[in-house]
Amino acid sequence: MRDETALNVTLLAGGVGGAKMAEGLAALDDIALTIIGNVADDDAFHGLWVSPDIDTLTYSLAGMINRQQGWGLADEGTRALDILTMLGEDTWMMLGDKDFGLHIYRTMRRAKGDRPSEIARDVAKAFGVKPTILLPTDDQVQTKVRIDEGWISFQDYFVRRKCAPEVLELKFDGIKAARPTEEALSALAGADLIIVAPSNPLVSIAPILETPGIREALTSAPAPKIAVSPFIAGKVVKGPADRMMAALGLRADAVGVADRYADWLDCLVIDHQDEALSEEIASLGVKSQRSNILMKDLADKARLGRETVDFGREQLKEGRAA
Ligand code: GDP
Ligand code: CA
Fold this sequence. Notes:
By secondary structure, this protein is an alpha/beta fold. It has one domain (7-321): Rossmann fold. 41% of the residues lie in helices and 18% in strands. Helix 7 (182-189) packs parallel to helix 9. The mean pLDDT is 96. The site of guanosine-5'-diphosphate (GDP) has 24 residues, from helix 1.
């Protein structure tokens, strides 16, 4: 039964960093969690539609994620991929045997004309995921990365080339024509608290926000907006966000994140090591709170989830008092 006293928390999340935050929040029993995920990493492989960030959320929240990698299922095999390799297919995109089952199911449902959001919801339900996973749009949006050789797909950059090339430009194909889902718009409008996970601001959070209607819904939502920094002491925990930010002329640290989100963000949770950045963040009109924001295990995730929600509750009180 739905707890009527629970705080409605809406989380914006990408893949690995997003899923860690989602797990931490899912561990709290005084909130009702809704997650708006990223679909701009989606692509077709071997005729199947793959949605890596949504699957990372699903597998993590189902407790079935490969903990070492942070993505993919635990206890996986590569026999399907081995056959594809034998058949001469390019198999740089790591897709596990069990994982293939989900991609087959998703592709089959899409071919029937079912909404990607409904498919994601049904998958989450079948995996026993409690929080609600929403898509920002049911339309196709795909991140493209410009490197010196030209525009390439996000997974080509991220997986095949291991983020090695310098990023010259980013774009989200299809985003201008994309329509937001009603579910995502209501999750923002009806939230008591909006949290942005420590996900890559440029390729995980940006495609959610740039879906027409989403940024407006976020900005006009009455809920306090609080983000957790993906940077600790000027370094990312994992991935290319630092080099992407620098390449695009943004500061690759918590100040850069605050700057990106300053138009609508109330508070940024930064690491204790970044205490010295608080003043600069404040000068952007963003408050900051400090915590240990490295999430190594479930206890770290739950603690950071608890603290972030409590910082949010303080914002709520201040908002009411003002
Ligand atoms: P992706 O879609 O798999 O690339 O994952 P996200 O975009 O959701 O998250 C990537 C970001 O998560 C990177 O910029 C990391 O710095 C950040 N990240 C990963 N683990 C942690 C962590 O434990 N704490 C914090 N604060 N950030 C993290
Ligand atoms: Ca991703």
